[in-house]
Amino acid sequence: METKNFLRMKEGDGEFSYAQNSTLQGRILDQVSKPLIKYAIRSLLSNDNNTHFLEIFNVADLGCGVGSSPISFISYVIDTINEIYKDLKLDNSQVPKINMWMNDLPSNDFKLLFQNLKKLEESKGDDCITSCLFMGVYGSFYNRLFPQNFLHLVHSNYALHWLSRVPPSIYNESRRSKNNGKMIVCETSPREVVKAYRAQFHKDFSQFLECRSCEIVSNGYMVLTIVGSPSMVPHHPCSARLLCKVMDNLVSKRLIKEEKAKSFDLPLHYPSKEEIESTIKKEGSFTIEKLETLYDCFAKEINDIEAKAISSANSIRASIEVLVCYHFGEHICDLFFDELVRVTIQHFYNEPNASVELFNIVVMLRRKID
Ligand SMILES: C[S@@+](CC[C@H](N)C(=O)[O-])C[C@H]1O[C@@H](n2cnc3c(N)ncnc32)[C@H](O)[C@@H]1O
């Protein structure tokens, strides 16, 4: 089944919600993406491009989700444009209007997103000379979402490692997964499964680039942050190892049927920098202006081991709870994530300097001139 029909981060702003458990995503945006976004905006609005009197500046956040990251992104774009035009001492009529297009799948918590946007709008005082319109755009970013030659800047944070589907070739005729009930690629995954996930990423990311190449103006920019792997050698982030252990434990305790475990796989792939670069080069519409990588971990700010483990487990839960409940049933949800907390606490006690780490790849692309 296609991911667009069932994927959604945990809605609302409760204890397990995505909004309350996405600090890491915001940190990567602050540390790595924002300087690139500023560079892109300055370049697009500079004299050289002769776009001083651009009337409308179209910006899209693809897979925007909900919580602090999309708000922080929008706020940053507004402040940066404001700053540029104040420096230039232009009057209001010469400042472009910002159209901010917020995209995600239809099941995203757009209601909370727009409530937060309203608060942001109210917080921007009279000092703000740019005016901004916010629009929600539902649909998969693996399809066309906007008209031809429309967007100036595209951003996507922590979304492109979600594939459009689990690669169909990992299932045999009786719908059993060749990944042996591990739900995510890990040490014991057969080579064939690893290859199938890689091929699916290549296909999806190529499609993403093709769609954006139609929608982005010549010389327009994209800043993409993708959770990835540090090398082409299959890499198993700690979160994947913890999830595999949870599944093993629940099957051996007979809380989950082996059959059921063997038909559950997450549509997630952590590409290497080489996979990303080669797909961009092959597709051919964009140049790579910058590529940066950075390790970071969940709950970095917490010292207490158990609190750190619970927070790390909650961050994983916020992203996959809906998928787990959908497959195994609501009654398994708390059991599953209580086990994840136990396994994570154990992991922190076993390895004194342990963390639940992610490898982040941030790439800035520029649309070639047609
Ligand atoms: C981990 S969240 C990231 C949210 C936000 N960008 C952030 O930085 O916190 C991934 C988001 O990507 C969205 N997503 C995944 N696949 C998508 C697709 N094909 N089209 C649009 N959105 C997608 C999910 O619904 C989810 O909201």
Question: Which helices and strands appear, and what pairs or packs with what?
Answer:
Elements: H1 23-44, E1 56-62, H2 68-87, E2 97-104, H3 110-123, E3 132-138, E4 151-157, H4 191-215, E5 216-228, H5 238-252, H6 258-261, H7 273-283, E6 286-297, H8 305-328, H9 330-350, E7 357-367
Parallel strand pairs: 1-2, 1-4, 2-3, 4-5
Antiparallel strand pairs: 5-7, 6-7
The structure holds S-adenosylmethionine.
S-adenosylmethionine binds next to helix 2 and strand 2.
Number of helices: 9
The N- and C-terminal alpha carbons lie at a distance of 36 Å
Which architecture name does CATH use?
3-Layer(aba) Sandwich
Low-confidence stretches: none
Number of domains: 1
CATH fold topology:
Rossmann fold
Judging from the principal axes of the Cα atoms, what is the shape? globular
Q: What is the assembly state of the chains in this entry? A: single chain
CATH class: Alpha Beta
Q: CATH superfamily name?
A: Vaccinia Virus protein VP39
Content-based structural category: alpha/beta
Which percent band covers the strand fraction? 15-25%
SSE string, helix = H, strand = E? HEHEHEEHEHHHEHHE
User: What is the radius of gyration?
Assistant: 21 Å
* Helical content (DSSP H or I, runs of 4+): 40-55%
Note the main sheet: 7 strands, mixed
How many E-type strands? 7
Mean pLDDT: 89
Task: Enumerate the strands of the largest sheet in spatial order, edge to edge or round the barrel.
Answer: 3-2-1-4-5-7-6
